[in-house]
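Re: the 556-residue chain
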Amino acid sequence: MNRPVPPALPIFVLLFVAATLVVPAASVWAGAPAAVAQAAKPGGESRKPTAPAEPQKQKPKSPAPPAPPPVVSGPFTFDKVEAMARELASKPYQAAVAALPKPLADASYDDYRKLRFRPDHALWRGKSRFEVQLFHMGFLFKTPVKIVVVDQGKAEPLTYDKAMFDFGDTDLAKSISAPLDYAGFRVHYDLNDPAYKDEIIVFLGASYFRFLGREQRYGLSARGLAIDTAEPRGEEFPFFRQFWLLTPDPKSTELVIYALMDSQRVTGAYKFVLHPGTDTRIDVTTRLHFRAEVNKVGIAPLTSMHLYGENRSRMFDDHRPEVHDSDGVLIHSGTGAWLWRPLTNGRELRVSAFQERGPRGFGLFQRDRKFAHYQDTEAEYHRRPSYWVEPIGDWGEGAVELVEIPSNEEIHDNIVLYWMPKDRPRAGSELGFSYTLHTMLGDPGPDRIGRVVETRIGSSVVPGTGEKPSPSKRLVVIEFDAGELPLLGAKLPVEPEIRTSNGVVSEPHVWKLPEGGRWRLSFRIDTQGAPATELMAKLVLDGRPITETWMYRYTP
């Protein structure tokens, strides 16, 4: 069988927004979330690869050696991690630094990829269905991460051993004269083949992690926390300072991981319970402790890439029809409505806040699963997973916030999605959240609901009329599939419901396509020169919604 290659090193994004322009958009649908738009001139933010877990701009001149893990008494539990996070928040922030040899600190991308963990040294090898392999410090990953193994309540730190790594044809090993810490780790499990352990989750860099289900390919990432994303002062990147790996039983199908997160203004205790499967899920518990006020905190953040899809507004000189890890945002609102927002890659930074109370779910989705729509045999975008966040308990008031960053290359993650609580965290405040993260190739919505599968927008000029094209006058075409739609007769009175925040909608048409059972909705919109127009649409039959609600922001 084909063995998965090691994942490409993650690309992380720092946002430095020069200016913002607030464009209000009133709620245009009864019971639907209001959308608030922000736009910033391109060029004000940096998306170059950078070391994500270096929160200080200036490093100390003489970094202290790595401190030993905190000493705890009695069986090690998650409560002790939370106590450590609370104590850490009561003290001034100190960056995690290490005396990393210069050849490792300056290692190139190619040299770092040659530095591989030896599989025969994997933790729990031959003793469990799970195995753990470690990442060496170097290249972008200069922040020391302490890793501790917990067995029957007893915590034992993993000490550095250079013999666990193959340095390839590099000279990096010669530069190491003292013990180091690790940069992160990845977990392997017999997910697709009982005789082979696939990589199923990786923690590497800041608070980023990625995980997979069966027959999936790495794409988007999850994070522990987002702070001040798309804010003028720049984003703050918390990082996991320490992990505790709980030794699983030999036949166990779940793995428990604790983590201690730190940053300039917040600390956190995290519990991850990993359940591998066709749609792998992670039960996440987090307890946050704030050193200082935070303007915007993002819970359960997801990060992805969207260069262009069938709704592209910018042209790329590329033979591939579409290039993206995710093509839309799915929200299950507190009222029970299902909402779909196609992703875009515009010329300006866009921030959209979908107001909610008690959201039932949200996520970044790769709905298009047809290889022909990507034509990429290497990246295999049609196999990239979707991540779905399912809140546990009442999350109260807030917003699902979407950040779309202009990008010209697929190497940049330019999409961020998270839950933003209504109340701003103050110094000394504590927050707790629980949720389940799902990875999937399908959809979590009910089978009876029709789904948006394509969005196309172009000029509304009719050939031969002599009318001049205008960016304010567009033709919108939406295709719906699934649910009961394929079973409905073409003559049934399926009707559209369309709303807009401004402008004029005209000539709406709905019809069933001759092949495949899809239904198409088209209409014209004249935005009348507005800088941004929020659109919403769905199909109804006998006054009953038969599709999810399509949402879109059009900017000329």
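The longest strand covers residues 182-193.
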